[in-house]
Amino acid sequence: MKIVYLHGFASSPASSKAQFFARRFRERGIEIDIPGLSEGDFEHLTVTGQLKVIDRAVAGAPVVLIGSSLGGYLAALYAARHPEVERTVLMAPAFGFGRYLPVTVGEQGMIDWRNSGRRAVFHYGEGRDRNLNYGLITDASAYEDFPDVRQPVLILHGTGDAVVPVSLSEEFARNRPNVRLVTLTSGHELTDVTERLWMETADFLDVPC
Q: What's the pLDDT tens digit per position in 48-95?
């Protein structure tokens, strides 16, 4: 089994959840790859660019995708376009990223961002503000809110998520028999329920706990 883990927005392969899952899988002799989705150029980050990074990491092989937040949305987008993806595990997936990011930024923030072409964003992986090009918005708007994923999907989402509402995962799971949604008493990061994340993921992938 090959696994590719996709970190969240303004994060990195060193994120606590990414490293938690890496340890658990490697302890069981399972290969896991955690690519840096911005490839060192966060300022010019786009959804299209990140999908290309995933494509290189997958390299046409059968794979399981695990994604957190924006990484979860990217996993769904990629799986909908690539049948070699066998299963996906989505943690607080940011469905509709291109539509909901402007809501988060606010009307005036979007005007300022569009006019200047860049916006300062806190990068959690680097612990500092980084500029982000407006091209992310124009690129993301070309992608569907809810990808048509046909493979088995496990969604793990906190009921107290104030960043990505759990209602988005509920909408995605509705009328999709291939999707199992597990709601947890947690927020967006889900770092206080990592053991539950692992148990649900291991069961879904038929991996020893």
A: 999 999 999 999 999 999 999 999 999 999 999 999 999 999 999 999
The reported pTM is 0.97
* Token output for 121: 């964003």
Interstrand relation of 2-6 and 179-184 (parallel, antiparallel or unpaired): unpaired
Residue with tokens 């980050």: 45
Gap between the Cα atoms of 34 and 125, Å rounded: 14
Contact (CB, 8 A) for 32 and 59: no
Q: Report the alpha-carbon distance of residue 17 to residue 4 in Å, rounded.
A: 13
- The whole-angstrom separation of Cα 72 and Cα 67 is 4
Residue position matching structure tokens 């927005």: 9
